[in-house]
Hints:
Elements: H1 24-36, H2 44-57, E1 61-65, H3 68-78, E2 85-90, H4 95-103, E3 107-111, H5 122-134, E4 138-143, H6 154-163, E5 169-171, E6 179-180, E7 183-184, E8 191-195, E9 208-212, H7 215-225, H8 248-259, H9 261-279, E10 285-287, E11 301-305, H10 307-310, H11 314-323, E12 346-347, H12 351-358, E13 359-362, H13 370-386
Parallel strand pairs: 2-3, 2-4, 3-12, 5-8
Antiparallel strand pairs: 1-9, 6-7, 8-9, 10-11, 11-13
Helix pairs in contact: 1-8, 2-8, 3-4, 3-7, 5-6, 9-13
The chain binds pyridoxal-5'-phosphate.
Residues 67-69, 93-94, 96-97, 145, 171, 173-174, 195, 197, 208 line the site of pyridoxal-5'-phosphate.
Amino acid sequence: MEAQLRIERPVTTPILLSSPDVGDLEQQYVMRAMQSGWIAPLGPDVDAFEREIAQRVGVDHAVALSSGTAALHLALVAWGVGAGDIVLTSTLTFAATANAIAYTGAEPFFIDSDPVTGNMDPALLDEALTALLAAGERVAAVLPVDLLGKAVDYDAILAVADRHGVRVLADAAESLGATFRGRAAGSFGAASAFSFNGNKIMTTSGGGMLTTHDGDLAARIRYLATQARQPAAHYEHTEIGYNYRLSNLLAALGRAQLTRLDSMIARRREIRAMYRDIFAGVDGVSVLGGDDDSHDNVWLTAVLVDRDVAGWAPTELGAALTAETIESRPIWKPMHLQPVFVGSRSLLNGSAETIFDRGLTLPSGSVLTAVDLERVRSVIDGFLAKRRY
Ligand SMILES: Cc1ncc(COP(=O)(O)O)c(C=O)c1O
């Protein structure tokens, strides 16, 4: 039989953008919850997780829910937002933000970004609110998003919303652990939503949390999230509810993660520092969010590449990383460009489209090892060297 020569590349483990960072401690917490018998589905870990998040964020109430999307949706439902209402939100966000608005029947109205941070531009928000309210439209809420772990300029956004008498629901899905002027993300406005999806700064596998200072709102959301069940033995129902609560097992996972939140943020900060070092002095490349990230949770690091100055496109760097099984991704495609929201109105300044065009999100997970980071670094260094940096 003829021998066949097969030359195979060594198998390298893919390096992902932001994988869950879980280990022994998480196993212990989940195992303890299982052994306690609190499986179906609420229990003491849910209560404790809510207390611990509320304390961490500095709010009076936290409600553990099945996702960040559920938290956004229920806040809007609890306020009675529905058809005929408008909710102003950031165009540069993940679809979940806009979807939560659409679920209620309200119309999402997209506001463009500050060019440095990608977060909602307060001046544009002011302009949109002025015009919509003058035209007699019903604006039910403003829904800004803390993009990639940098808190919105809440001084400016809240001042504008207050002046127009409109409530703020903060999408803090990505920003647990970040602060703005010494206050934690998740403590601003009338309510905030966190996500504990698997790719977030900390995870419950899937889950979310609604935080608020408003006890009535928290109680109503708890009620709506458990199928709007009236306290009667036969389960009386007077309105439509949802099955949106977080399970006790997942809350246990969240409690373990929360004890490690600061160290996971510190690790992401080291990764951010590595990227700053790699790209320092590379003309045409900057880190999204600006130079000061000291108050961010630095969830994901994204670079902005100005092709005309750099001489290469972010997609080229992305392709070089993909060739070495390293994940990278464009920034979210702005909502006003999404086919599904094509009929929605927006107020634009071009920033979100520029960030989308120039942005590339790089591996940022706290689970990445020194060896992983060295691999990422050498691929980027090699890419830049070929372009004579
Ligand atoms: C900005 C933003 N909003 C909302 C969500 C929705 O969170 P979840 O996936 O927990 O529903 C996410 C993340 O997935 C997000 O990144």
